[in-house]
Structures are given as structure tokens and as C-alpha cells.
Amino acid sequence: MQVIEKTRWSGLKVALGMPKRKVIERVKSCGLTGRSGSEFPTGLKWESMAKERGKKYLICNADEGEPGTFKDKFILDNNPKILIEGMAIAAYAMGIREAYIYLRGEYSYLKKKLERAIRESGPYIEGAGLEIKVVLGAGSYLCGEESALIESIEGNRPIIRKKPPFPTEYGLYGKPTCVNNVETLSYIPLIILGKWNPNLLLFSLSGDLKNPGVYEIAAGTTLKDVLAYAKPSMEPKAVYFGASGGCLPYKLFRDLPIDAKSVSENGAILGARSLIVVGQKWNAAEISKVLSEFFVHESCGYCTPCREGNFRLLEILNRMCSGKGENDDIAHLEKLAPHIRDTSACALGKVSTAHLLCGLKYFRENFVELAKGKKSIGLKEETEKCR
Amino acid sequence: MQIKIDGKRVKFEEGETILNVAKRKGINIPTLCYHPDLSPKGKCRLCLVEADGRLVTSCNTPAKEGMDILTRSKRALEARKLNGELLIANGKEENEMEVMKVLKEIGVKGNHFKTPRKVTCSGRLPIEKDDRKCVLCGRCVQVCSEIQGINNIGLMNRGVCAEATTPYNLPMLETPCTFCGQCALVCPTSALRERALSEKLVKAMDEMGNMIGNSKFYVAQTAPSIRVSLGEMFGVPPGTLVKGKMVSALKKMGFDAVFDTDFAADLTIMEEANEFVQRFSSGKNLPLITSCCPAWVVMAEERYPYLLKHISSCKSPQQMFGAVAKTYYAQKIGKPAKDIFLVSVMPCVAKKFEAQRPEMDSSGARDVDMVLTTRELGRLMKQKGIDLAKMEEGEFDRPLGISSGAGAIFGATGGVMEAALRVAYEVITGKRLKKIDLKEVRGFEGIREAEIDIEGTKVKVAVVHTLKNIREIVESGRWKKYHFIEFMACPGGCIGGGGQPRPTTNEIRKKRMDALYRLDYKMKLRISSDNPDIKAIYSEFLGKPLSPKAEKLLHTKYKKRAPKYF
Q1: Predicted complex ipTM
Q2: Which residues neighbour B417 within 8 Å (Cβ) at sequence distance 6 or greater?
Q3: Of B57, B79, B86, which is closest to A308 when you measure between CB atoms?
Q4: pLDDT tens for residues A80-90?
């Protein structure tokens, strides 16, 4: 894998020898895009940051909260120095002297490791005039959204800010701020050295697999080929793209390349490239119930559709799964799910019903079965047993 | 720059929101969490419109060149309705409230989601909260931080468990809350409200009326700003004077005597102006800071104990009235103080707290027995089937019913200052005041400064309203450079108080304020010391301002209080 290449600080040395403009030019020309799932061109973000004068900040977003995603943890755990080197280069290119790593609260055990790595890289990053602080996440899923993350560092309740202005104009403490993902920043040293292969992408694979884990997959590879390595433990039924990306049936997706285009063409979102493979045994409505619980728990409470709507969705799903489904339950689900998607204030609300929309599209019979009173298998208890 | 709203081309200015453009053109879009005095947040999602095929919240989406907006498309209407259903699925229905009006407007009738979400209800002094009604619009949070700068209400927890509450969910008495009540004033559902006493009053009066040989004597006093706002609850436009009608309505409700707090305001001015002249000539404890506003007094006791010696020792008009009614007036009618039941109607929630202060009993009984807010009185009248708008004009009773224009303007920011300066001028110079209108201290700006020339002596004064502005003046140390400062906690002074009718916006506040100044302008008596009832009470009872008797009855002391959380 390219990201676990040992750091020899040669990327930083080369970058420091280049004019800042050239560094940004190279990042721009290689076509690197945000690896959190946003796919925003990194070079463009850097360019607009470089234009800003005065105090500005760099934040590495290590608040990897998407269920089924653990590629950033893999980098932080195995090769934190490549991230630090990437941050140093980014800071140099944009003229930043203060940087933060916003580490997911649940990754607190990595904090010491990360801080040791920063200490050890002291001589190198000081050369770039950079100071890096590690901030522990406040524990909410929403903290992974860049403006909520900024609010959280400032000590406020993590609520999304209205955009525009974007963080590159008005960010941390009101100053221009560049927020980049761990994986994005980790590729920077390789890009500077010309060793980066843009066709290799990190995927987090989990679910009913014998070999779950982080995989590096070349663009264009089909799901079937990947699963040949990951080895499903039972006949796959569907693939869920984290909690917020929705799902696609295995039969449909099996022979398609795993990329954003082919996923979105079928009505789901690839996002941060986490694939949760689900076996035939499971019922899509029950999976939706579990995911719905997640969103009810993580909704910040700011806007009506996400706060109340998801709660009501869960209410209906709970009713269905406990065999007390009512006639118009599915009709309500079909009314509420797109409503929440269309009228929520932030991205969390907008994606919070993707699982249900895809589930109803591809596995409608599962919902109908439950609505008619078929006994559920009790997904929660089953998964508890698996652990 | 132009946009298209419902097919019509409309010009707009840079930065204007879709809602504002539509309002300007007379197109109605329902709103709930939006309040004209607060920054738009787009939380309730009831103001959805379709802009270029996307649903957006009109309250906080700026208009953009060429935008095509449909305010009544099927999709927008349905989305609004569903959000409305989701909102009330949680709560109790209260027909009078703003939330119900909005929901009716968007066609919500009942909902499919039957179970209420939360069933906690906590009664706290003097503001109560009922979570079943709360729709988490966040206006109370905003008003407490954006307007008042107290930051005592915030959202706790997240998702459906979110709750607007005090820091660490502490009881309000243990927090830096000043009980200004602005949170209750902006609440569209009355989930936050003043601790309601009107029902207790009705019960007490009914019971007493039925008893043979009932010796209780019910007395009402009405604050200066009530007369320009109470009418709003009966469909009268803001800023209409309903003084006479209010008096007859109160009489009809069963009060034995109805008096004017304006009289007590004149009394306050006599004491306070003399106190000011005394301090000004001796140079001690300057600046003098007004003490009429109970929310400000609580704030000073909690946050700025070093200012307590600067605050005028005068009780507020409400408490002065109580002390006088239960001594001077009690003597006149030959009843003991304990037999007088005094109800004051105030535009204020903090007055409920003030009346309960243990030290407010210098008359031998509680100075004030019960405090109702303007809203409560309005509701009570409605319950009793009294239509204020149709009442005849009545007159306040004597001997505590005559007041000057100076007493009336107490209800607006700058009023106390102006009233005090009118008397102070005469006390200092011994001459009649020619220019009565002191326009320098009037207005709606948060902080107003002026230098008043009293026969060559320059008096530096400041008039400040909203707690946020008070914080700014005090914490920056600017307060030290004045001789006399008026602090009022609520925007606009008492006319914008926390107990006033909903809705209250700055626009409505200004109308009420104008009405008070008009009232003052039309009056013959405009200086407190000219009031014949005031002259009588001093010659018959109190002696002169700041006499030992006046000190005992009309003055008070403050003490430092430390809220648990700070």
C-alpha cells in the first residue's frame, strides 16, 4: 500500500525547495480530491487558501465517524508520520503556522501515539514553521462535518454553520481554515515525490466477511473480484455504503466497478468508501431500523425534519419489526424518507434516510413481509451474539 | 438585481433574504422560528419555498440574481405541512399560541404520529417550562445570548433528547438568570412562561367574595407601560392608550380600588432625584444608577457586587406603592395593612421575583401580595368575559391615582432619567423648568449618552437598555465617567418587558413608546413635584423626601448573591 511507505521526510525537503505556488500547482495537476467522500479538488481549496492573508489554520479531519469506515484509523495507527509530513507540506504551501488534528473521540488511544509521532518529527516540521496540536473529538457524528468540527474546536456545540461563507473564508476563530481528510493529506508527500498512483484507493470492508479490513483497490475493479479476497462468510445479499450511503443489491452491483459513478447511477452514495457486505440472512427493514437508531442518536436536534422525522421513522420501523405493523406504515415511510432528505438543514439529515430509500427501492418485499406481521429475526440480538 | 417570485419579477438588494423580499411584496410565507429581532436560523423548516427546483428555507437563504422562487408550489406546501405535523406530534395543542396560528395557516390538522415525545414538566421560579410544548425553535436561546448577552439558556443533549435549558440543567434560582423574561416573551408555544398566578387570584377573590363579613380589600395597581400594550390582546393596534378602559375592566373584575403605579413613579422620582442631588453635591458614590428595573438589580447582585453602593437605594415604584398603600392609604380607609390585598399588574416577569424578596415588608405586611403580567391580566379578562375594547372610560381612584407625565414615561427607556432630571433641575436651581422635553435621552439606541446643562453645571448621563448593553458599559468600565445612569434590562424598557403581550417586536415596542411620550406631552402635569397627590402625601405623611419615614418605607438595601454556577 502506498500510504504505509516509510517516511524519510524527502517529500518535505523537496517541497521546501520549491516555490509555494509550484507545490500547489503540482497537487492541482495530479487531480487529488478530498478522500472523505466529498471529492472536492484539494488543489483548488489550497489555492483559495493561499490567496488569503493574515492568520489561517490547517485542520486534519480525523473524526472518522461513519459506521464501517476505518481507513483513517489504519493510517494513523500504522504510519502517522506520513500524515504529519503531508500536513507540513500543506502548511508550507498555504503559509500556515498553526495546525490541528481533530481526532475522533473513540480513537483516544491513538492520541499518545500521534503526539509522540509529532514530537519525533519536531525538527522536520519546525523547519516548515509549523505547530501541530491534537484535539480530541467531542463524540458526535456531526463533528466530522467541517464547520461543526470547527465549532467543536472553538468549544461550542457542534452545529453546522450556514454556507457560504465556507471555512476557507471564515473558519476557525473566524479565520480562513483548510480542512482536509487524513487520507488526502497522507498522499501529499508521495505526490511531491511523483510516486503517487491516483488509481489506488483505500476501502474499508466489513460485514459478513471472513477477511474484513482495509483494502487498497485499483479503480475499475469489480465487487466480485474484491470479494474473492475478502471472502464472504455467506451468500451476499447487499452492500451498504456506511450508514449514510444507502445500499445496492449484490446481484446488481456484483459486476460493476466500485466507483462513485456506478454507485450513484443506481441511487446510492459511495461516500467515504466503506463497504458493509450483508448476507442473505438479514432483512433490509431491520437493517434500516438499526441505521435509523444511529441517526436518531446522532441528529443534533437543530432542524425539524431530521430531529422529529428520523424519530418517527424509527417509531414506525420499531413497530413493524415487533410485529405490530399497521397498514399505512410503508406509505408513511415512503412519504417521510424523501421529505427528510429534501428539507433537512445539513448533510447529515439529507443522507440520513438513504438506507431506507434504497432499501424500499431494492428490497421492498422485506418491508412488506414485516408490515404483514412476519416475525422478525431480531437483528440486534443476533449481532450481539456475533460479537 | 431581480428574482422571480411566483412568476412575478421582483427587485432585491444585496444580502436580502427570500422571506424579506416576499414580505415586502405582500407575499405571505408562514414562519415559526423566525423572529424579526433575532438572526434567522432556519430551524423549524416551515418557511420552505421552492427555489430553482430545490426546497430552501426562505428565512435564511439570501436571494440570488435570477432565482426562480415558488412560494406556493405543491411540493413546498406539502413539505411545510409535514414538518408542521412532525412539530406538533410532540406537543400539547394550545389554540391561542403563535405556533397554532402558523400550523393552521399551513393546513395541519392533527397528525399521524400519535405519541408525544417527552413528558417532563418542571416548574421553576418565576419562569416555568413545559417540555411537552417545546418545539425547539431556539428563540429563547437566541434572545438570551443575542439580545440579553446572558447566555443562560442553551440546548442540552442532541436529537430528540435536545432540550432548551439552563447550564447543567440547574434550577433557575441557582443560575445567573435575571428573570427578565424575554425568553418567555419570544416563545411561540408558551413552553416557557411566567409562573401563572391569575388562577390563584380568581380563586382567592371568589372565595373571599362569598364569605360573609369578608374584610379583605382588593387593590390593583397598574404599571405605566400596561396602558399602551394591554389593548393588543384584544385586537387593538399597538400603541393605543387603553388607560380608562383598563380601569373600568379591573373594577368589573372585582377590585375595590384601582390605582396608578405612575403615582408611585412620581414618588420614586421625588426620592431618587433628591438622592441624586445629594450625591451629586457631595460627590459621593457617583454615578447614581437607577434601581427601578428588578432584572438589572438581580444582575448587579449576582455579577457586579461592587456596583451595589452606586445603585439608588429607592425601591422600585411597584414596591413603593405597596409600602404606601399599606400604611398611608390603610390609615385613610381605616383598615389594617394585613387586610389589604394588593395585586400589581406589571409588564415584567422579574417583578414577581422582586415582590417576593424577604426584605420587602416595611409596611408591616408584604408590600405587594401578587404580581400579574400584562399577558396574565389579558387572559384573565378574557376568561371573565370582559372585552377591554368595549369597556367604558374609567378613572383611577384617589388619593394614589393622580400622576404626572413624568410617571408615564417610566415605561420607556430613558423615561426614568428624563423624569428625574426634571425634578433635579428644580431642586438644584430652585427655578421652574422651561424646556421640559429632554429629547437627548430619548430614542431606541442601545446606549445613549448626554450632557445636560443645569444652569452651568454639566451633568453627564447615560441611558442603557438590554442586559447585553449593560454588560458592555459595566465590563468596559465606561460606567465610571457618568454622574447618573439609567439601566433597563429589556429592549425598549418596560414597554418591551418580558411580561408584555406576544408578539412583541422592536417595531411594536417603538409604537408603544411613542404612545407614552404622546401621553406625557398632552398632560398638564409633567413634573413629579407638581403632582397634588404627591404634595399631599409628603405634607400629611412622609414629611419630606429622604426623611427617616421615607427612608424606612421607600428605600431598601441590596446584597451580594452568588449563583452556584458561574
Answers
A1: 0.87
A2: B290, B438, B441, B461, B463, B484, B486
A3: B86
A4: 999 999 999 99
